[in-house]
Amino acid sequence: MKKMLFVFIAVLLAGSLFATPVFAAKPAEITVPFNQAQFQWRAISAFGDWTPGYSYQNSATSSDYTLTGNVLHTDWSYSPLVTGLAGESTVYVYDKTDDVWVENEGKVHYEYVPGYGDQKVLNIFRGYLEFDGTPSADSFVHGVAYQWVYIFAPKDATLTGSYTVNAHWDDTINAWLVGFSIYLWDTGAQSYTTPFPDPFIEPVPANAYNPLGL
Prior knowledge:
The structure is a single chain. The protein has no helices and twelve strands. It has one domain. Strand 11 (168-170) and strand 12 form a beta hairpin. The strands form two sheets. It has an eight-stranded antiparallel β-barrel. The chain has a two-stranded parallel ribbon with strand order 1-5. The chain is 0% helix and 47% strand. By secondary structure, the protein is mainly beta.
């Protein structure tokens, strides 16, 4: 089962010093179970803190991966479903220096979603996965994903969606930020206290895969 993301409307560091990943010569399918935590801000509430009632911890889920050489392939999926979905396939590339698998340019596009208005939507992901050796269900250690959700409308536009009332203009991306999430994946029970980023972080530069050190 793929990691299921909730659309913003209703949607390591070093492992063992002695464990060296053995890369698969042929594609290998693996399913990794974990507990998921998600801390969410949505533009239905003021920018600067997590939206009340939209965060959780210890949600049992799993993700499917295909291991090919030093690359892990997977897909982002959404509930409820969105239209015009593109770019949901993403890859994690092994970083020998940090001994983690770093997400490589995770970008997902989709179109109209009730609550946003009739706008193009862009999701940007950054993050990493940590395994103790070759990726498998048994070797999984920890993972983090950061998700930014933008809609493309002019800066002087009047946004009409019910989930855009507190949209935050981003001069770097040149779009309206309407959602931000942090996902945390672990094998054991979770008890995180994760404050809203201050100063707020942006999805640039692309190599800043873990800007909060989670």
